[in-house]
Amino acid sequence: MTIFRFGLGKAIIGPDTIETWARKIIDTDATRTDYVLGLTDAGTLGNNETLSILFKNSDKIDSELWPIVFGLTSIRLKSDQINLKQACYTVEQASIEVFRETGEFIGGMGLDDSYYLADSKIYGTLKLVREEFDYLTGEYEDLGRDFLSAIK
What percent of the chain has pLDDT over 70? Predict the structure, then answer.
């Protein structure tokens, strides 16, 4: 739930993915909770209502979940489903949430600022920002792929 909440909020996961997962759970799991039933209509509910359900039933991103978020973000960027600006923002927000909740510094907190400075031609280049992004997230792509495979 936490990855869905964060992913939908940062546009690295769409409501259709959440709906597919929820339908799979309903079809295969004897335990049917109201929130999973609600998520079977995520595609028609809209992002705000779906996020509301997810917020009520998820935790904060922790030490075990952020690598999956990093991997998903990297996969989405490489497949042109999001742009570098969105990817940097997502990684930065995940890093901030992890630090706020656990005190653990995982890197990536200044990635959005690096993008802004490079895009504004104040400092650095977008190529360097992309290299920094790839360095921070590349090793987690397999976790992202595993997550996507598990929810289909």
Answer: 96
